[in-house]
Amino acid sequence: MHELKLIQLYCYICEEYNQFLRWNVQRFSKNNFEGQISDEEILTIYLFCLCYEEKYKIKSMHQHIEKYWHSWFPNLPAYQTFNHRINRLAAAFTYLTQRLTQAFYLPADCLTIVLGDSMPILTCSHKRSGKVATPLTNKAYCATKNMHYYGVKLHTLALKRAHTLPFPCFLAITPASVHDLTALRSVLEKSYAHMSVLDKAYCDKELQQHMLAKGNTLLTPMKEKKGMPLIR
Predict the structure, then answer these.
(1) Angle at 153 between CA 144 and CA 189, to 5 degrees
(2) What are the tens digits of pLDDT across the range 26-65?
(3) Could you give phi then psi for residue 145, rounded to 5 degrees?
(4) What total number of domains does the chain contain?
(5) Beta-sheet pairing, 147-161 with 167-175
(6) What contacts 176, CB < 8 A, 6 or more positions away?
(7) Residues 120, 82: one domain?
(8) Is residue 176 a contact partner of residue 138, using CB atoms and an 8 Å limit?
(9) Same domain, yes or no: 177 and 138
(10) Which residues are registered as beta bridge partners of 163?
(11) Domain that residue 138 falls in
C-alpha cells in the first residue's frame, strides 16, 4: 500500500510542479549544481515521510529514505545537500499548501458560523537570541499562557460543524508581536458568514460595524475596564 501511495504522491507532485510550482521555485546557475535528484523527488520525499511515515525531522526523513526507500530514490544526496534543497523549495511548499487548501471540499454540515483564535509557536526562550527563521520571528508576550516567548503566531479561522471539529477555512503565520486583530482584520472584513465568534482581542467597534453591514455579527467577550468590578 505504501508503494501505491508513494507513486500517487509522486505523480501528483509532478503534475503540480509542471503546471504551477516550477514558476515559484528560485532558479540557480549550473555552478550551483547539487546532484541529479529533481525538485519533484525532494518534494515527494518530504511529503511522503511527513504524511505516511510519521517522520517530522529532516534528518529522520533522510535516514528513513536512505535505509528503506533508496532504490526508489537512487540519486538521494547527502543529508546536508538534502536539507539545503528542501529549504530552497520553501516557496514551492507555500504555493502547494494553497493549492491543497483550495482542493478541499467544503463539508455539507458546515454552518455559517466562523470560530477564530490564535496560538503561539515557540522557537526558543525569550531569554535567548533567536536563530531560526529570523526574518519572521520576534519576541512577544502571550497573556493566555502568561509567558514571554520568541517565535511566531498561528492564526486560524474555521467553520463550525455539528458534533465534530470545525473545518479550517483560513490559516496564517505572523511574527509573534503582531496583534491578533491586525492579522485577521482584512480577512474578517471580507467574510460573508452570518456570525463570527472570537476572543477579546477582536473587540473593535469599527470592525464590528463593517461586518454587520455585510450581515456578519461579531461576537466577542466584553472587555473589562480597569478599576471596575467584574460582572458575573
Answers:
(1) 95
(2) 655 454 555 688 999 999 999 999 989 999 899 999 999 9
(3) -95, -5
(4) 2
(5) antiparallel
(6) 120, 137, 138, 139, 140, 149, 150, 151, 152, 153
(7) no
(8) yes
(9) yes
(10) none
(11) 106-219
Residue (of 181, 180, 214) closest to 195 by Cα position:
214
Strands 195-197 and 138-142: unpaired
Q: What is the pLDDT of residues 138-184, one digit of tens each?
A: 999 988 888 899 999 999 999 999 889 998 888 888 999 999 999 99
Is the distance from CB of 196 to CB of 116 less than 8 angstroms? yes
The amino acid at 96: L
Residues 21-60 as b/e (b if ≥16 CB within 10 A, e otherwise) read beebbeeeeeeeeeeebebbbbbbbbbbbeeebebeeeee
Residue (of 199, 162, 165, 166) closest to 184 by Cα position: 199
Domain-terminating residue out of 102, 135, 155:
102
110 and 215 both lie in a single domain: yes
